[in-house]
Design goal:
CATH architecture of one domain: 2-Layer Sandwich
Helix content: 40-55%
Shape: globular
CATH topology of one domain: Alpha-Beta Plaits
Strand order of the largest sheet: 16-13-15-14-18-19-17
Distance between the termini: 71 Å
CATH class of one domain: Alpha Beta
Length: about 950
């Protein structure tokens, strides 16, 4: 039988989905097959637990949470069993990710039609359960429309196949026939009136004219009738060529009004959004220029056109503006994939982006995806805006305008009972509004806990009776997902960010400037859209390896939120459950930019460790004793600095630790992972080399009028890997700059920060600012070589010392060598470097981008420089190398560390030709590469140095 996980860490990670609701489950199970699910249902019956099915957990209506047994099929029960390209169908298990099936089907020129914005992490079982749709529903319909058959398991362990024409159980088929016949008029007049009417049960699919399709009727039951164990889904032919027309309108209402006009042959999407979504996006780090590609306007429609030829697709796209001659302000037509993807990224990020309004205020789902007949959308949207204004609320609409569906997150205030009451007032009035336009309270996400109570406002008592009878056919004892759809829970019951959610508050060390200094607000940034569960991008490394919800950014945020709430996790900052959830966080900072709402788990982890262990002697001798590895690695800069004062100490240490027993003892004493090899030391520090090299030179920059730059001697470059530093000095001088270094010891405090020793971090940073103050006053550029240290100076220093103006000056002056070299190119300065080549042709490089650099400032400048050097660069796309500084040296992390590297980094390095450059600017990355493959990685500075002609003078 599958393991039952009833530890508090796991239960807390599953406490919510992407909704505003909170339910603490009794246990979590991740079955591998049908037999295990049957055993789990027997266990649930024995213990009196309700059963909740869960896929990717991206439900925004509270469909995938509950206080019983959560059965998560996403981790193990996720095989594609077969694809039939002739029949254009696929047989799959429920945990298959949407993009997983789309990728597999693409081999045959096919795809799976439904594609919600969470397509990179939502499961198809969950999509069918909610009757999800996505942007291409104009052409390919809902999940129900693409369902051929499915097998479900009932509470007593029976398997039932549902298909067009009935079910495999004659008794169930007879009862479904009775429901249809008893409510015939209601099914024909109230249900199935427009494509996005997915609220309630799809009982209208039982009508004779709809083929008595029991499978389609089961779609959208939201886990309330049984557990889906197998699906046969329809695949569709992908258009051979596509073009994207983006039409600009005066505002979102004008766009919504025009949308139905564009439902013409060849148009696959009609997606809409307003300028307020773009404004919200531009407040995100690194997204300040987002939206610049859009045509003029205050509202836009994205119309993707498909055809057999590119010319035909482009012709249809160019003709779309003429269909609404009075409304289109501007338009652009895109046929190339790259710019089209950049435009789509704006729209697809909407689900996460709009959880933060442009002014920084919070916005929440609840009234998330209402829908009306498309021809009524403009009127409905205008009235919805009026209702928001009347109740002093703000929201950002976007969605599937061609289908009449609007997504919106609204500025509800759940901090007190009055705010919760105002929420109820709004959703009740909004339900009445949508009913007035013949609409549905849900257009694709299901009703869940957010809207089930509202069904009585849009459906007749007879329709509600039909729903109740339908559920009892499959679930007579109410085992599955109680409180949803039938016998609904109140819409204002158990709201996660509601009153009582912020019991534990503190004055954090970090400024948390984007969250008003509140750790609670920072943690509650996470709204659960689950981008951290996607294989796309670099977030979240440990989840990529384990597939465990606890190890996702969302799971960790949920555990921290429970800790702050103080109900399920009452120990606060001393919580072992929160510590466990954070243990496999590599502090890579990918979430700080890739998460749609910029959850920064690396910062939250540092803050938690600071309070959990305490500081100074208390952290060494107290009850919550800090692991020795955090002392050893955290205080590494200080240890190296002390050792430097002993003559020949570095050479002696290198010699001693090269002897196996000494290395083993050293690692044991330092609490270091025994399978790691010790790092070595440079024979002498970079700063000592630089002082000797500069001896006798006048410090006056007026010698030859050269501009002065500061090369930052970070701990790792200074004491362990000095070759990049020496190369950087020669490279910068060859470029025509005078190079200086700080005159005394400096440190960014990185190792103390990543281990949560924040008091010493601030002290180290203040000391550093004292040392470099003259350089800051002079305004010299500061060039960092170690990416993690550079990010500390570019970003973290402001969060640690927000009131020190020198800190802001550091962030303004600090840059990477690659960015500095790229700016040198832009200034049209002399370029002393030649092109690198081998006997076989242009030089090739495998580039491992340091996770901090990739997540915070990108690798574009470095790629420009490599292109200028004639280097064919292949970038490792897997994100963090897996070592992550001190994290990879701590016991218990080795297996995950190696598994991360084996995803892409190690295979690419091993497969590279002998003369391929292995480029890794991060010391951790180079350490991981050499310890895992034997290959010696080099820094960009060394690549530039190798490109200097032999006769080029180096000062």
């Amino acid at each position: 039988m599958t393991d039952i996980r009833d530890d508090l860490t796991t239960r807390a990670a599953y406490v919510s989905d992407a909704s505003i609701y909170r339910r603490l489950p009794e246990a979590i199970a991740e079955p591998r097959g049908v037999d295990e699910i049957r055993e789990l249902l027997a266990l649930a019956r024995a213990r009196g637990w309700p059963v909740i099915s869960r896929g990717g957990g991206t439900s925004v209506a509270g469909n995938a949470i509950g206080d019983g047994l959560v059965i998560d099929t996403s981790r193990h029960f996720n095989r594609i069993l077969s694809i039939d390209p002739e029949a254009m169908t696929a047989i799959i298990e429920p945990g298959v990710i949407c993009d997983q099936l789309r990728a597999a089907a693409s081999e045959f020129g096919l795809t799976y039609g439904p594609d919600p914005s969470t397509h990179s992490r939502c499961t198809i079982g969950g999509m069918v359960a909610n009757n999800a749709c996505g942007s291409h529903s104009v052409a390919w319909g809902t999940s129900a429309d693409n369902l051929v058959s499915l097998t479900v398991m009932l509470a007593d362990g029976r398997d039932v196949e549902l298909r067009r024409g009935g079910t495999s159980d004659p008794a169930i088929t007879r009862r479904l026939t009775g429901i249809r016949d008893q409510h015939l008029a209601t099914l024909r007049t109230e249900l199935g009136q427009f494509p996005r009417q997915v609220s309630g049960y799809g009982v209208h699919h039982l009508l004779a004219e709809n083929g008595f399709d029991a499978a389609k009727a089961f779609a959208g039951t939201e886990g309330t009738c049984g557990i889906i164990t197998r699906l046969t889904v329809r695949l569709v032919r992908k258009p051979a060529h596509t073009a994207l027309a983006v039409l600009g309108f005066e505002d979102a209402i004008a766009a919504a009004t025009a949308a139905p006009t564009l439902r013409v042959p060849g148009v696959y999407t009609i997606e809409g959004m307003g300028s307020d979504l773009v404004e919200a996006l531009q407040t995100r780090p690194g997204r300040q220029t987002s939206g610049s590609e859009l045509p003029r306007g205050g509202g836009w429609l994205y119309c993707e056109v498909g055809a057999d030829t590119l010319e035909a697709a482009e012709a249809v796209a160019r003709g779309l503006p003429s269909l609404v001659p009075e409304g289109v302000v501007d338009s652009i037509i895109v046929v190339e994939p790259a710019p089209a993807q950049r435009l789509w990224a704006i729209r697809e990020a909407g689900a996460g982006i709009v959880t933060r309004l442009p002014d920084g205020g919070e916005a929440w789902p609840g009234w998330e995806d209402s829908a009306v007949p498309p021809v009524r959308l403009g009127e409905y949207l205008r009235d919805l805006y009026d209702l928001l204004h009347e109740l002093h609320l703000t929201g950002i609409p976007f969605g599937h305008f061609g289908e009449g569906c609007v997504h919106i997150r609204i500025s509800f205030d759940f901090s007190d009972a009055a705010g919760v009451a105002a929420y109820r007032t709004f959703v009740e009035r909004a339900a009445e509004l949508v009913h007035r336009y013949g609409g549905s309270v849900s257009g694709e996400h299901g009703d869940g806990r957010a809207r089930s109570e509202l069904l009585s406002r849009i459906y007749s008592p007879d329709a509600l009776q039909a729903f109740s009878e339908f559920k009892r056919v499959f679930d007579p004892d109410g085992v599955f997902n109680p409180g949803v759809l039938v016998d609904p829970e109140p819409v204002d019951q158990g709201i996660r960010p509601g009153p009582g959610a912020r019991n534990l508050e503190l004055t954090p060390v970090h400024a948390l400037s984007r969250d008003g200094g509140s750790f609670s607000s920072a943690v509650n940034r996470c709204v659960g859209v689950g981008a951290c569960r996607s294989d796309e991008g670099a977030m979240c490394p440990s989840f990529h390896v384990t597939g465990d919800e606890v190890h996702s950014t969302r799971g960790r945020a949920r555990v921290l939120a429970e800790m702050l709430r103080g109900e399920s996790i009452p120990e606060g900052w001393k919580s072992k459950d929160a510590l466990e959830a954070l243990d496999l966080c590599l502090s890579c900072k990918a979430c700080a930019t890739e998460c749609p709402v910029n959850v920064d788990m690396a910062t939250y982890k540092a803050e938690f460790l600071h309070h959990h262990y305490g500081q100074g002697l208390r952290s060494f001798l107290g009850r919550n004793r800090r692991p020795m590895a955090q002392f050893t690695m955290g205080w590494l800069p200080w240890l190296m600095r002390i050792t430097e004062k002993v003559p020949f100490a570095f050479r002696a240490i290198n010699l001693l630790v090269s002897f196996g027993p000494v290395e083993t003892l050293t690692k044991r004493l330092g609490g270091i992972e025994p399978r790691r090899r010790m790092i070595s030391f440079a024979p002498r520090p970079l700063t000592a080399w630089f002082r000797r090299r500069s001896a006798g030179r006048r410090p006056d920059e007026a010698i030859d009028g050269r501009e002065t730059v500061v090369l930052w001697p970070d701990t790792f470059t200074n004491y362990s890997s000095d070759a990049p530093g020496r190369a950087a000095v020669e490279v910068l001088e060859a470029m025509g700059y005078r190079v200086v270094m700080p005159t005394a010891n400096v440190c960014c405090g990185l190792t103390w920060h990543s281990t949560g020793q924040l008091d010493i971090t601030r002290k180290v940073l203040r000391n550093t600012l004292d040392v470099i103050e003259p350089l800051l006053e002079a305004g010299y550029p500061i060039i960092g070589l170690e990416p993690s240290c550079t990010v500390m100076l570019q970003d973290e220093i402001l969060e640690m010392l927000p009131d020190d103006p020198r800190a802001r000056r550091v962030t303004e002056l600090t840059t990477t060598l690659g960015a500095f070299a790229a700016r040198h190119l832009d200034r049209d300065r002399p370029w002393p470097f030649g092109e690198l080549s081998t006997e076989a042709g242009p030089a090739a490089a495998v580039c491992q981008v340091h996770c901090h650099q990739k997540s915070m400032h990108g690798y574009g400048p470095e790629l420009r420089v490599l292109e200028k050097l004639g280097v064919d660069a292949a970038v490792v796309s897997g994100g963090c190398c897996g070592l992550a500084g001190n994290w990879g040296f701590e016991p218990g992390h080795y297996e995950v560390s190696q598994a991360l590297a084996e995803r892409e980094l190690f295979p690419m390095v091993r497969a590279a030709a002998d003369d391929t450059i292995v480029l890794a600017d991060g010391f951790s990355c180079r350490t991981q590469i050499v310890q895992g493959t034997g290959a010696e990685g080099v820094h960009l500075a060394q690549v530039l140095r190798a490109a200097l002609p032999a006769e080029h003078p180096v000062r």
